[in-house]
Structure formats: C-alpha cells, structure tokens
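Notes, Module 5: Reading structure tokens.

Key idea: the token line is not a picture. It is a compressed description, and you learn to read it the same way you learned to read a sequence, by spotting repeated patterns. We will look at two proteins. The first is printed below with its tokens.
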Amino acid sequence: MEAKSSPDLESIGSGTTTKRSSGSRSRIRRDFLTRFTDSERFTENLQDWFGSVSENDKIKPVFEPPFELVELQKFDYALEGVSFQQLTRMPNAVYASTSTSVEANAYLAVEDFLHAAVKSLWEAFWSSREEEPVPFSVGCLFSENLKFYQAEKALALGRLDGLSATGVLLKNPRHPHGKWDHVLELALLRPEVGSRQPSLPVLGEALFYALRVLISRSVSRLDFSQSANCVFVLLVDLQYGGVVKVEGDVSKLDYDVNNVYECAADWIKNHSKISVSPIDRIWNKLGNANWRDIGALQVVFATYHSIVQYFGPPRHSIEDLAADHSSRVHSRRQERQLGDTGLNENGMFRLQQRTMSPEIVEVHEEESSKIEPEPLMKLEVGSVLWLEDSNYQKGYQINQVLTNGTLPYHIASPVDEVGKSVFLYVGSPPSQLEPALEDMNLWYQVQRQTKMLSIMRQRGLSSKYLPQLHGSGRIIHPGQCQKPSSGGRCDHPWCGTPILVTTPVGETVSDMVNEGRFGPEEAIRCCHDCLSALSSSSSAGIRHGDIRPENVVYVTSGVRQPYFVLIGWGHAVLEDRDRPAMNLHFSSTYALQEGKLCAASDAESLIYMLYFCFGDLPNLDSVEGALQWRETSWSKRLIQQKLGDVSTILKAFSDYVDSLCGTPYPLDYGIWLRRLKRNLSEDHGKEIETSG
C-alpha cells in the first residue's frame, strides 16, 4: 500500500533546521513523519501487545497513573483561589446520540473547556501583569490534512466528520493552521470513554498522536528543554475523561521510512513508558464542568505540566499557592471558633479523628454563643389575625392550620363574612437580617405570589381556575405600634409581617391521592382545569413554573360542579430573569437543564403530576438522575402507557406534550381544552366551563 504524503511537511520543516551536523538526522525524521499518517495501520501493529497488556491487567494494572493522589491534592489546594471561566457551550449527555448537532456541540464544548483551563492556569501561575495576553490557541485537528482549525470554522466548512482531536498550541499568527512542534497537548473526543481502561482503537490513536508530537519536537528549533520526551493526550467523551502520558527517547526509534508503522509500534513496546489515569467524570449530565472534582482536576493538571514543558517553572509555584490553603482554613476555623487550630509538622491542621477530613470537624457550640431566634408567630385554630391595607383593616379567624411541603398556611374566615373561607398565608418578619432558606420560600409564597396575583388582576385575567386576590397587606400586631411612619416599622418582631389572602378554598390533589379519592374522572377534570388556568395566564405572558400536587386544589364547597384551581404562583415566570422552582419530580426537562421554561414546560409538569398520582414516586436525589429518569420514561413510553390506563385522552395529550418538550412551539390550548371537555361531557354527562 502506497504511503500517504504528510500534509504538515512544511509545518514541521520550515524554520526548524538545526546545526549542520544534525541536518541529516532531521531530514530522516521529517521523511518518517511524511509517511507516518495513518493511525489505524499503526494501531494494527499494536494488537498483540495490547492483548497481552489486557490479560495482565486482569491481575494488576499495567499502566501506572501519571499522577500521585497527593500531587492532585496539593494542586487542588493551589487552585482554591483560582477562578475558572463559566462555560457557555457545554456537552449534554442526557440526549446524547450520534446526531450531528450533539457531536458538533461536543467539539465546541471541548474547545471551550481547554481554552478556559489554559487561560486560568496561565493567569494564576505564569502571568506577570493583568490583561497579559494568553500565548495559546485551541483548535480542532482535521484528519485528512492534519491541520488545526477553530471548531466553528471547521463546522462551517462541513468538516465535522473529519475532526479527530482538539489541540492546545502555542499561538503563532504566521501559522493559523498550527505546527505540530507547537502542540502542547491533544484531546481525543471519543464515545464511551467512561470505562475501566481505554479500548485499543482509542489508546492506539492516542499513542499515534503522542508519537507524532514527540518526533516533531525532536526536529524543532523550539526549546522544550523542560521535558521534550513527554507528551499528554486527554481522552474525553460527553461526561468522562482521563489522561494518557507517553514518555520516551525518540532517538531510539528506528527511522526506517519503508517500514514506519512497525518501527513506531516497536518503539512503543520497547522504549516508551505509558501512564493512564483512572477515567472519571469531567462534566455532569447537564454539561457543567466539575472543575474541582478529580476527573477535571487530573485533566487540568496534565495541561499545567504541558505548559511547564515549554515555558518552564511558573512564577507562582503550586507549593506557594497551596500554602495559602492552611491560612484560609485557619481563618474559617477562627470564624467558627473551632478551638484547636494548631498545625502539625507538615503545615496541615491536626486531625481530631483519624477518619475525619482536615476541614470537617464536629462543632460544639457554647451555649453563650447561640443566637436566639426571634419569637415565631404562632397562629392556632381560633386565633384572629388583623390585616392592615392602605384603605382598610380586616380580621380573619383561623379555622385550620395546614402545610404546603414544609411551609405553613391557613384556612380562615373573614370576621365580617360569616361562612366564607379563604386561604391565608403569613410571611417572614422583615426584621431577619439574614433570611434562611425557609424564609426565602415564604417570600415566594407570600410577597412574590401577591405581586403575581396583582398583575393578573391588573391585566384583567378572569378564570375560575385561577386563584383570586382577596386581600394583602401587613399584620397588625398586639400592643401599641410605635412605627415612625406609614412605611416604617417598630421594634415589635411581628411589625411589618406581610399577609396574603386568596380564594377559593379546596383540598389539595396531594391529599386526595393520599386518601384514594383521585380517580380517572378527577384526573381528566384536573388536566382540563389546570390547562385552562395555564391558557389564561399565558395570554398575559405568565407561566406557572411550580406545578405539583400541593399547588392544585379541588373546590367543592358552595358550587354545583366541583372544579380544580391552580394555586402557588410565587415562582411564576414573567420576565427572562425570573427562574422557576426546581423540583426533581415535577419540573420540566428544560427547566432542569436550563433553569428556564419553554412554551410547553408547564404542560410537561402537569403530565408528571398526573402520572405520579397513579404511581409511586421514583427515588431521585440529583438533577442528573431526574433527567435520566425523564429520558428513559419518555423513550420507553412509560408515561404514555400509565396515563393510557387512566384515560385515552390523557395518553393522547401526553404524546402531544412529548412532541413539544424543549421546543419553542406554543401549546395549542384551544383544541385540547375542547377535546378534554368533550371527553368529560360524553363519558360523564357533565358540562364544564372552558376559559382561555
């Protein structure tokens, strides 16, 4: 088979002539590179060697890791004060496939990851002044001509299929497509890297590129005096990654230009030292880089060593930056008054127990240092609470104390409207200097929901499936109020506490399910009524963002036909900056991925709510697990099948929602409200109101 000519001959040869005595050696090596262009042929010559390595690997690991754990720990300490750029282009393993868009996004993500890594490392360890330009470029390798291109340009030229690696190179405007002796580090993007050890094709390709870099450096005029005989190759997929380190003296390679692949394979077998790190997670399933986890840490550490090879020791050493770790921990311990802050002979804090981390200790707070919380407002059945608005004062008698998750709320009766029931929500006293998470949730339940219901009223939204604002204002606390003005507050801990009152009142879907009173008829009606509420709110540009069984109530008192009302609008999304609630069971896929709502997000959450009303909640403890559950359930049509057992119309609606998930296409509320209404009318002989 005729050898391919090397497309990078000029790249290697131009300006790399050394002393005359070494000219012949350089020419032979460049000729060798001219013919050393096919990674598959090279890998074929390693099959027997790899087979024996794999057999031995069953007994003990053949490839040592390139880094000791203590090195990574010290490097981790050094990076405590280093900020890494927030990545905007990220791989997403949730819907990973062989599709072109997923693969293209992955190359863009790897390029961004490497650029962020080298930029942060350069600024933290080598840069001598602010705004000093980073002397690196990152580009994707095109396998046909072995030249480097910016990922966006390569994709624009339709060269996605030909991309084989991503490289970190020394920046050189004279060579926009890179020179192989300028390559500091390479990353191979390959599917399913996350296994015990790399497969032969993946490892063989990594060794092929590593050897090309080493030979190129040997004929280069660049000074790699720190470690010219070592190169790092990264192996990554959409989630995992690892490091391959190849060391060896390429002067021991037999440069037989008529037998390049066998000679190269012999050098790998007999004259090289190969280290392979454990494969660990770099990106989570949402595509966010776990910069400080060990997977990303060892990749960044390899990048650090790649920079050292050319630029030499950094201005600020790892030891110098890691030394600050002790002082940072010391400061934190003093702030928490942890007592023993002595250092051992290694400069680290003494462990109180052998099994404890240096930073995790049991805190024994002194009684005198405890901060006494302000007295909480206790509203019991029979209590009367008075609300002050700008125009009136109104009293409410507490009839029932309930909870929405962990947040208390009440069913009350206005003292001047006998027989009427309302929902009453009490917020946190404004005297709290540092609101706790519970107080923040109360803020959404009271203040933010008050704002959203007021906006609905101002925009003329009228639907019996939406809650109505009955009253809002501040509590009138016991005793004389000494507030200085209408906008101020006195010293009483309850002064200024916000209150929200809404109608109508009903029992939650959660309670109905727990008591076995949520059947197919209720499910269809619930779907219709919630969809009608969403139709009305979306006409005013408002999305709910927190649909779950606790936020839907069934109204039966004082009505001819019971109906459902969608409550809990505190997390509603009105503007781009608003963020919906995050719920592993009920949030839409797009909300979990992006922190935003798409047009069909509320309908998707409604489907999940109905689905879980007829099945057990899965054990979800992470966003990644929740997304994986969604992907599996939709792809296997488990959701459609479950709802199909309840009603054919719910199965059809879930199919429709599935087709819209994550897209910008709006939901056709009208047609589905008519279908749901017709289904109820035909099956149960009951006419229902449709709004929106």
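Here is the second protein, with the sequence above and the tokens below, as before.
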Amino acid sequence: MMALVLPLGSVPAPMYSTLLTHVLIFLCIFSALCLSSDHEIHPLDSLTASELTQVQTIVNNSICSTSCQSLSFHYVGLHEPDKPIVLSWLSDKDSTKVPPRQAFVLARINFKNHELIVDLNASAIISNKVHDGHGYPLLNFAEQSAANRLPLTYAPFIASIKKRGLKLEEVICQSFTIGWFGEQKTKRIVREMCYYLDGTINLYMRPIEGITLTVDLDEMKIIGYRDRLIVPVPKAEGTDYREVKQKQPVSSPIKPITMLQPHGPSFNIEGHVVSWADWKFHLDFDMRVGPILSLASIYDLEKDESRSVMYRGFISELFVPYMDLTEEWYYRTYFDSGEYGFGLCAAPLLPSSDCPENAVFFDGYSMSQDGTPRKLPNIICIFERYAGDILWRHTEGAIPGKVFTEVRPEVSLIVRMVSAVGNYDYIVDWEFRQTGTIKVNIGLTGLLEVRAEAYTYKDQIGEEVYGTLLAENTLGSYHDHFLNFHLDLDVDNPANSFVKTKLQTTAVMDKRSPRRSYWTVVSETSKTESDARINLGSGAAELLVVNPNKKTEMGNYVGYRLLPGSVVNTLLSDDDYPEVRAGFTKYNVWVTPYNKSEKWAGGTYADQSRGDDNLAVWSLRNREIENKDIVIWYTLGFHHVPYQEDFPVMPTINNGFELRPTNFFEHNPVLKVKQLAKVKWLKCCKECRHNLTADIDPLA
C-alpha cells in the first residue's frame, strides 16, 4: 500500500511575510489537488494495511490451525490480475467489475517453501504449492536480527574478540547470503561478518577480518565457526561522515536555494494514479522490487486521445558480485532484490534533503516475519523539477535586420525512492518529460564494503590485488552492480515488435560524389527471442519497440526507442557460479513475450539459486516476439573500482537510460508548450538593506 503524506514540516521558515502567504496558498491548493480518500480501487493497487492483516489471518487460520509447526512470511504482494482483464476494466470501468483482490505469498511452512495465492474477496487460500526446487525466498528482518545477535553470546567468538583486544559491546554483526558454488545439498544458512564501532558510526569501515560464523536460519543457531587470521582493525579516525563530527576547516558554504510553487503543483494524485502535463500513470510499491510504474500513457494533442506507452516497469533484480577470492569474501555475490528485498530496504526520505520542498511523500507497507503489516514512512516522493535546463530553443539571425529567439524551459516530474541495502544507498528516479520521454536514473552512494588488511602503503601490496588501498589497513574491494529492468512497453496497444537499427558505413565506389564514405541505416525486425539478445558497445545501434499495426501520416511505424547510458558488460566467465545464477547479465538487452509469471530476472527463489529458473533459462524457449505483446529486459551496470575519494562515504555516481518516442508523434510534441508564467515576488537583499521586486519563475 501507499499513502499520501503532505510535507508540512519541509517548508523553511520564511524571512518575510510574502513567502509565508505563498506557502499557505501552496498548501491549500496542494490539499485540494492531491488528497483523495474516496478513490476507486484500482486492479493494480498494492495491498493495503488491512488487506495485509487479512492475509495474515487467512493463512494462520487455514494452515496453522492444524499442521503448522513453524510459519514465517518472506514476501507478500499483489497477485496482479491477468493483463487482458486489467485492460478490459480500464477501457470500460462502468460496466466491468474490478477483478478480485488477491495476494501472492512466499512463506516458509514447516521448513518448506510455499507459494500461496490468497483470495481476499473469498477470504480463502485458492492455491498452495510447495516449491521442491532449488533456492530460498528472501530474508526477512526478524531472522537477520536474530542471527546477528548469536555471535555476541557465542563463547568462541567472544574469545576471538578478547584475543584482538576489542570491546564486545562495540561489536555489530551483519548477515550475508552465501550464494551457490556447486553444492549438491544446501541448508538455509547465512554467514555473519562483524564490525567494530568504538568512536564512529561508520561500522563498514571497521571490519573485524578473519572470522567466519555460519548460521542455520531454520534452527537459528551457529553451525560453523572459524577464526583464520588476525589483521588490524582500521582506525575510527576520519571515518564518521556526520556533519557534527567534521573538524575544521570545512567547505565554503552555499547560500540557501529554495524550491517553491506559489500556485501549487501541476500534478494531481487520485489514489495511486498520477496525472501531470500530458502524462498519466499508476504508482505502486512492492516489498521486493520497490516502485512499480504502470499504465503510463500520454495525451496526444493532435489526435485528441491518450496513447499507451508502458504497461509496467520496475527493477527486476540487482546483482552485486565482489571480486575478492579470499575465504571470507569469495561468496559475496548478492541479489539485493531477491535475497534482501529492494523495497523492504526502502529508506525514509528526508524533506528538503532527499527531496525538495515542493515534494509530496508516500508511505508504503511490507509484511513482517509473523505476517504483521509494517509501515514504511515517506519512502517515495514525487516532485516537479526545474533546474534551468532548456527544453528547446533557437536563435534565428539569418533574416536581414531581425533576430528571433524562442526558448522553452524544461520542467519534468520525478518519482524517487532510495533503497539502503546494507552499506549501499541506491537512488532510483523515474523522470517523466513533456517530450514523451521516460528517463530512469540510478544513483549509487553510501559506504563501500572494505576488507581489513595489514597494508599501510600501496607498495606493500603484492601482485594479486582485489581492491584499492583507501586508508591505513583499509582495502576497497572491486565489485559490480547490475540492475535489470522489466519494461513491458505497450506502444499504442500491446502488439509490438523489436527492431534493431544499425548505423552501417558504406564506401563510395563510383564517382557520383567526392566523398569516400557515408553511413546509412539498416533495420532488422527480431522474429524470436534469440534475435533480440544484444550486448551493447560493439557498434552504433538504435533499439526500437514499434507498433507494426500503426503508422504515422508519413508512413513510419510508431514506436519508442531505448537509449542506454554508459554501457557495462559482465566480465565474469560463463561457467562461474555467480554468473550462472545471474544469467541475465550475459546480455544488456533481452526481449521475451509477455508472461505474468516471468517478472523477477533472477528467479523467484534467488537465495542459493542455481540458475535453473531465471531470465536466461526462460529465453531458451526462443519464442516468437514479432507483433506480439513483448517485454524488454534492460540491464545497466557499474564496474566499481574504488578510489580514495570514495572514503569514508561515496559521492553519488550515476547511470541510467531513456525511453524516447520515435515517430510516435506527427511532429515535435512540445512545440506548443508555453513559457512558464511569471509572478511578482518580493526578494530581500540583505547586503543592500532594501527590498527588490523581480519577475521570478514560479518553479525557481
């Protein structure tokens, strides 16, 4: 579920009465525009708190009343209706009933993996399947917390801490999934890595290296212990990133910048449906994948109709393999969505810091181990952004005696969530632009995962290096981040095709031109899945999703194209176990026919999975994709070689992609966009000791 939260505490104290007046106007209009408590239920609405409680009651009464020795919930989300049913309801809401509300549940019942479908209308479990295959569901917070406490009362560990001269009360332990490396039989286990505080809150910069504890999560006990070596714990000095802990000198201050909209926002929110400019979309939250954007459509002014662009888009999986082969590190190959829950780790957003003053905030809900709903406050924000960018412009000076200049400022709508998965913070932005473009940006910040070492200077390191020496005894490990996006584009209806357009150099062999070469465009429509597996970076290419059943007045197929940001490919070998599990990283682009059950690229049971149920396996069927309802899977990545500037906290690095209209409109869709209206604003000039009246853009 998501709930709207107004940013009442986010507006800075005014320096003058005029600002206060505008803020009050803003809040009044804001409430009128955005609050809608009586909205109709949408088939794609996430489960409400009361529905989650109902799921808990139904499961407990149906299963635990007779044969339940143990029960733990690991995932609960909307069991979305079939796509044709949703589209039918959307086209005729008056005569079509809202589909039954159902929940999809992954639970451990009597130490077995169960997949449940719970019908909330019938208050009954309508499907209960036992998963006998490989892998386990994502970890929940309760069992991680219980596992993290075990070392602190374990005598061998206490002795190891004492041997190192450390204080037990300053030790914090964290749970790490272990991957899979060819074992025939597996248990549901994690390994505990412990850290040392004592003078800092930046625990990740002070690892206690050399100790490995293995915990059986079902029995909740330590089943393995090894203290292999002792290396110095990195010092606390210089690791605390809090503002109050910074010593002089500090950076030169930046004068305050305020983002206000005195006439209120330009967007409207009714339930989960957001309308802005010509865009309309449904916003959802899921405890596994985070924000889900659905039914994105844009109003075409010339055709006087809303046209579909994307049925559903979300982060399907996030794979983070580390490049350290030591005993305590080789298994660190995380699936942050499928093992830890990308949405489950959503962090509360801070008004005026994570999001500007003009942002609206949403709460979300997940489910605890015992099935109790857990509120996640302020985890998504929506705001309009104007940063001085230009939408389009031209200065015409070729007409004798005249100069014409036309400029349009770029204003866009941002949907943001931050997921704090352990040491890393992932900033996820879905940006909707007036041009019809959807831009996705991923920002990486937070803290590196470092290994404690005896080294204090780079020249002490031998030939086999797994990282960068960032500070004394602190090695920043090489690693990757691969994010796979599930993009179900419906460009003017579901039946679409995938077209690869290559830019090909052609030699001029005759004398028709003094030129020796030029490039031209060669297009190829993919017939099956194997045709559409693409590794980018090998040459210039355009990747299009077109509707082969619709053309523009000029005869071009209407479409959207995928514009990647920085291209990153996996460097792991095909037979490396982490790569087998994360087969979706083998190609940057995959295209599959729509299948409701194929939504998580790493498979349903990512923890200790074996690569036998993931996107790479699904695609082996080589199904037809021409003029079909298709899904684009795009993997963007980061090869992260740490540098000293990443210590003790990382400045944000970014990568992303765009979905941009391609012959979708008959001409430039923002040709008729107006200039931003200007308002009279009272500015206080402290230095001049007098007031100035100026024309200020309302978003400035």
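Summary for the second protein:
- The two ends are 33 Å apart (CA to CA).
- Residues 140 and 294 are 27 Å apart (CA to CA).
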